[in-house]
Amino acid sequence: MDRFNAMRVFTRIVELGGFAKAADSLHMPRASVTVLIKQLEAHLGVQLLHRTTRQVSPTLDGAAYYQRCVSLLADLEEAEGLFSTRQPKGTLRVEMPAAVGRLVVFPALPEFTGRYPQIDLEIGLNDRPVDLIREGVDCVIRGGLTLDDSLVARPLVQMDQVTCASPAYLLTHGVPLTLAQLSGHQMVEYFSGASGKRYGLEFQQGEDVQFINLPKQVSVNSAEGYLAACVAGYGLVQAPHYHVTQLVREGRLQAVLTDCPPPRMALTALYPPHRQLSPRVRVFVDWLVDLCARPTSGFRR
């Protein structure tokens, strides 16, 4: 029995809550996963997992063993990364907002894959919250505040934002030149599909931020839908500059209130502590930091 491989399988079962999910995550036959865990329990002489028809959970011994496995596997990967002259290899699972992937990451991605040809990328494009441990994700890129203190946060960039509306909407409602002139206007409302939290408009005025809620007819829970509703004429929106640049250039959106822009939005890479020294994660996040700092990234005016 390969004990390190058995530990790796065991940690994935605990994190994903099932043998089948762990097997799929590791691209292993399910029967092989079952055999490895039986061999590991026989070797240790303890039961590591409670198995029911509905779920799999660690025993008290299993929970303690899981923590040691996570630490040992992280130390092993760190040691291999420090002393190996080989390039990082293996699968790297990343989640990011669809717009960041489509407009920023994918146009530059051939540079990364050319530099690290042995890394296989699995990239999910969505705005939903991701449970990195349970879903087996190595790294997630998110905009806005990061509230999960259990994850390592690597700042990427402070994104400029802009307030926009469609030309047709502004023709009907007028172009606001000051915040006082927002009376009589409406907004597209963004809400979180996970928490239900709803977001109004924010304007930076010196050191202060002014929050304004306008009437709305349409509310959406995705960044792409948010801009689509704006293009359709449902009101004002606020979005990162890179996300609306093309729409403004095409004349489908128009920037307004440029003298009092929204506050900048942080873009951050997040990953579990025990993966922070993974060579795959490290080189990818380092590349993202460099990419986001480039004038061509679209994040800065």
From TrEMBL:
Protein name per Swiss-Prot or TrEMBL: LysR family transcriptional regulator
UniProt cross-references to PANTHER family, sorted A to Z: HTH-TYPE TRANSCRIPTIONAL REGULATOR, LYSR FAMILY TRANSCRIPTIONAL REGULATOR
Family stated for the protein in its record: Belongs to the LysR transcriptional regulatory family.
Keyword set, alphabetical order: DNA-binding, Transcription, Transcription regulation
InterPro entries for this protein: LysR-type_TF_proteobact-type (IPR058163), LysR_HTH_N (IPR000847), LysR_subst-bd (IPR005119), WH-like_DNA-bd_sf (IPR036388), WH_DNA-bd_sf (IPR036390)
Superkingdom assignment: Bacteria
Cross-referenced Pfam families: HTH_1, LysR_substrate
Transcription regulation among keywords: yes
Keyword DNA-binding recorded: yes
Domain HTH lysR-type stretches: 1-59
Matching Gene3D superfamilies: 3.40.190.290, Winged helix-like DNA-binding domain superfamily/Winged helix DNA-binding domain
